[in-house]
Each structure stands twice: as C-alpha cells, then as structure tokens.
C-alpha cells in the first residue's frame, strides 16, 4: 500500500481521534499507583474509550491481541499484555493506546513512574525517550527527509549512553492502523521527502543496556530486553502541515507545542 495523503475531512477525523487518544493517557494517570494490576488499568481504559469517547480500542483483536491496551513494565520493551501482576513503587511503565473512531486511528504512548519515585537511571532513560521523540518531531516539515528523524533520535540516545531498539518502528497511520512508511528510530538511509497531509507515528524505544530484544514464545507478544535492563518509550501521532508539523496526540501535561511552523 502506498503512502496516503490525508484530505481536509480526513485530517479533521485524525484530529478528533488524536485528541481522544491523548485523553485516555491523561485519564489513566491518577490510577497508576502501587498495588494496581495492569488488567485493572486496561479495563478502566477500555470502558473509558467505549463509554466516554464513543470509540473502540484498535488493539483488541488486532492479529489476535487479547487486550485493549499495551502495558509494558520495566524490562518489557513493548506489547506487554495486561495481566494480574501488581505494579510496585519505582516501576517504570509504558502505556500504549490506539483508538479507532469514525474510521481513523490515533496512536500514542507515554511513561509513568509508579509512586512518582524511581532510580536516577530510570529517570534519565524515560527523559531520553521523550526528548529524542521531541527532537525527531522538530525535524518535520514538507521537504524534510524521513532520515532526519532517525538521525535526531540517534544523536540523543548516543549522548545519553543508551541504545535504540531496531526491531520495531514508527508507521504511517490513518484509516489503517499500520500504514506505510516505516519510520526507523536509528540513523538510516531510508530517504523519503515528507509532504503535507502525511500522518505517521514516532515511537522510539530506548534501552538502558543492549538494544537486543526477544519476544515471549508462550504469548507471542511480550517484547523484553535480552539483558533484562529497563526500556522506555514515548509515541505520538503526527500530521505534516503545509508549513510544519502538528502533534495530533498532544496531552495537557506536556511542555511542547501542538504546532511547530518552519
Ligand atoms: N500501539 C502499537 C504501536 O505503536 C501497536 C500495538 S499492536 C497490539 O504501533 F496488538 F499489540 F496492540
Ligand atoms: Co504505533
Ligand atoms: Co502505539
């Protein structure tokens, strides 16, 4: 499938679903406390998506995925399946939500610190993931190249002494959950000139130790670091504007502009 350019009515739908996705991550924040299970969090989010946002989780049933959200704790890199495991003080947790509304998708994730206190290294890891995503977003405008995204992330991860997961990437998004192009988060030569109307995600996974990951053979989903050291990820859905970029899934807790013009 080719890269789709969104028309004005599609852009409006992407804005609406993007805002709904952001609200899920805002709503769940006060529930992330020691002792809560990831299943409980998943159920709160699924109820909210269906009852308050009048939307659906795009994860549920996607290639057989059993839950509404992905909740990835500590050494889990991504695609953590909510279960009866309780969160503990100092855990770092990624919640990744994809909402489907009126035929269009919004995809976003952020890190949460359980009990609001963790190790300085965990803090640095989460900050690196978020800052590298922001630096990548700042490169985007019509005429910029997709390669600038990976280069920006690589620069920040290298400086912090962390590694970048190579097996998972960002993606085009719209009527499809995962559309073209693939968005690589490390230095690469996948040249693509960006155009107004493109929508895609940037979702760097940054590891404290090795970049190498493994998929749980029993459940077929849960991705962990090979060395069991922690991993952090942030994700936004972006729209290329005629003169810059818009963060469709921006939340109120972020100190970052919704629109950057160049
Ligand atoms: N939200 C993930 C992404 O960023 C994909 C999750 S697919 C699932 O692309 F099936 F694991 F939910
Ligand atoms: Co995504
Ligand atoms: Co996602």
Structure explained in plain terms:
The protein has 262 residues and is α+β, with helices and mostly antiparallel strands. Helix content is 26%, strand content 26%. Strands 1, 2, 4 and 5 form a four-stranded antiparallel beta sheet that branches. Strands 9-14-15-16 form a four-stranded antiparallel beta sheet. It has a three-stranded antiparallel beta sheet with strand order 3-12-11, with no helix packed on it. A hairpin with a 2-residue loop joins strand 14 and strand 15. The model has no long low-confidence stretch (mean pLDDT 98). The protein binds 2-amino-4-trifluoromethylsulfanyl-butyric acid (MF3) and cobalt (II) ion (CO) (2 copies). One cobalt (II) ion binds next to loops.
Unique ligands: 2-amino-4-trifluoromethylsulfanyl-butyric acid, cobalt (II) ion
Helix and strand run: HHEEEEEHHEEEEEEEEEEE
**Fourth-level CATH superfamily:** Creatinase/methionine aminopeptidase superfamily
Number of domains: 1
> What Rg is obtained from the alpha carbons, in whole angstroms?
17 Å
The coarse overall form would be: globular
Mean pLDDT value: 98
In the predicted model, the low-confidence regions spanning at least 5 consecutive residues are none
Q: Secondary-structure blueprint of this entry?
A:
Elements: H1 8-28, H2 38-52, E1 56-57, E2 70-73, E3 76-78, E4 92-101, E5 104-113, H3 120-138, H4 147-160, E6 163-164, E7 170-172, E8 179-183, E9 199-202, E10 205-207, E11 213-215, E12 223-225, E13 231-233, E14 236-241, E15 244-247, E16 259-261
Antiparallel strand pairs: 1-4, 2-4, 3-12, 4-5, 6-10, 7-8, 9-14, 10-13, 11-12, 14-15, 15-16
Helix pairs in contact: 1-2, 3-4
This protein binds 2-amino-4-trifluoromethylsulfanyl-butyric acid and cobalt (II) ion (2 copies).
């Amino acid at each position: 499938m080719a890269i789709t350019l969104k028309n004005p009515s599609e852009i409006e739908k992407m804005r609406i679903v993007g805002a709904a996705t952001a609200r899920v991550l805002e709503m769940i924040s006060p529930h992330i406390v020691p002792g809560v299970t990831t299943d409980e969090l998943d159920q709160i989010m699924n109820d909210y998506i269906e009852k308050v946002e009048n939307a659906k989780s795009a994860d549920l049933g996607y290639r057989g995925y059993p839950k509404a959200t992905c909740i990835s704790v500590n050494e889990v890199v991504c695609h953590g399946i909510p279960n009866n495991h309780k969160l503990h003080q100092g855990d770092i947790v990624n919640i990744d939500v994809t909402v489907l509304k009126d035929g269009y998708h919004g995809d976003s994730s952020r890190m949460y610190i359980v009990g609001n206190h963790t190790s300085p290294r965990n803090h640095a890891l989460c900050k690196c993931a978020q800052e590298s995503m922001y630096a990548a977003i700042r490169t985007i405008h019509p005429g910029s190249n997709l390669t600038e995204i990976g280069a920006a992330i690589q620069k920040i991860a290298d400086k912090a002494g962390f590694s970048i997961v190579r097996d998972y990437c960002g993606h085009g998004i719209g009527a499809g959950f995962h559309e073209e192009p693939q968005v690589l988060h490390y230095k690469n030569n996948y040249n693509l000139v960006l155009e107004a109307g493109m929508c895609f995600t940037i979702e760097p996974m940054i590891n404290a130790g090795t970049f190498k990951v493994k998929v749980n053979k029993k459940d077929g989903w849960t991705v962990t670091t090979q060395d069991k050291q922690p991993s952090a990820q942030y994700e936004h859905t972006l729209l290329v504007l005629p003169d810059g970029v818009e963060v469709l899934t921006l939340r109120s807790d972020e100190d970052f502009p919704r629109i950057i013009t160049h």
